[in-house]
Amino acid sequence: MHIFYSEEKKGNKLILREQEVKHFRVRRIQKNEIFGVIYHGELYKCKIAYEDRNTIICEIIEKLKVKKPLKSITLYQCITQDLKTMDLIVRQATELGAEKLVPVISERSFRKKEAILKRIDKWKRIVIEAMKQSRRTIPMKIEEPVNLTDLEPTMEENLLLDNFYEGLSVKDVNLKANSFSVIVGPEGGFSEKEGNLLRGRGFKSVLLEPYTLRTETASVAILSILMNC
């Protein structure tokens, strides 16, 4: 079943506009075909009630049951040198159920804040596309970039992926916790100063074994582990 995204509801009708209309046309939805529409944290089974060039009005047939994450995870992702790699991380983090993604500026990350801010609208669009693919009904929040030196532990478990430091194994983390924050470093990892600063503030260094992972792989690995344990 094809899934679309709406921000507008009138009575028993959900309305698709602009990019969603384009997506609808690409999918070649037929008049009596059933499809899904995400609206305000819910997924509805719908059919076409009316359409014109710029608008598609969808009649709600029923509200569908959807799975929602049992854990709250904030991903603090150090910004990759190639911002296209961040596009991939945003998509994957959305599909894996992260509640929030915070871009982090560190010593070895991409550091031009203005360029990062210009990218946020694109990342929000990627979130919507990933939601439709994964049937996620609540958008992952994208925060404005922060400096690594400003980070503080705020969750039940606060983790730092640092394969250049003899930290904990994942199995030694409280995987049954309800809330996690995870800091994933940039290409080349954290500087020794940064690692010591974060550990001193209460973040736990965690090793993903047996090898050193690319930053986009590490974020997927830790989110998958935390969400499914």
Q: In DSSP terms, counting alpha (H) and pi (I) runs of 4 or more, how many helices?
A: 5
Largest sheet: 8 strands, parallel
Helix content: 25-40%
The general outline is elongated
How many domains? The number is 2
Percent of residues in beta strands? Answer: 25-35%
Average pLDDT reading:
95
**Assembly type:** single chain
Tell me what the CATH architecture of the largest domain is: 3-Layer(aba) Sandwich
Write the topology of this structure.
Layout: E1 3-5, E2 9-10, E3 13-17, H1 19-27, E4 35-39, E5 42-51, E6 55-64, E7 72-78, H2 83-96, E8 100-105, H3 113-134, E9 141-142, E10 146-147, E11 157-161, E12 168-169, E13 179-184, H4 192-200, E14 204-207, H5 215-227
Parallel strand pairs: 1-4, 7-8, 7-13, 8-9, 8-10, 11-13, 11-14, 12-14
Antiparallel strand pairs: 2-3, 3-6, 4-5, 5-6
Helix pairs in contact: 2-3, 2-5
Concise overview:
The protein has 229 residues and is an alpha/beta fold. It is built from 5 helices and 14 strands.
Overall description:
With 229 residues, the chain is an alpha/beta fold. The chain folds into 2 domains: 3-64, Beta Barrel (Ribosomal Protein L25, Chain P), CATH 2.40.240; 72-227, 3-Layer(aba) Sandwich (Alpha/beta knot), CATH 3.40.1280.10. 29% of the residues lie in helices and 30% in strands. It is built from 5 helices and 14 strands. Strands 7, 8, 9, 10, 11, 12, 13 and 14 form an 8-stranded parallel sheet that branches. It has a 6-stranded mixed sheet with strand order 1-4-5-6-3-2. Strand 4 and strand 5 (42-51) form a beta hairpin. Helix 2 runs parallel beside helix 3 (113-134). The chain is elongated and about 60 Å long.
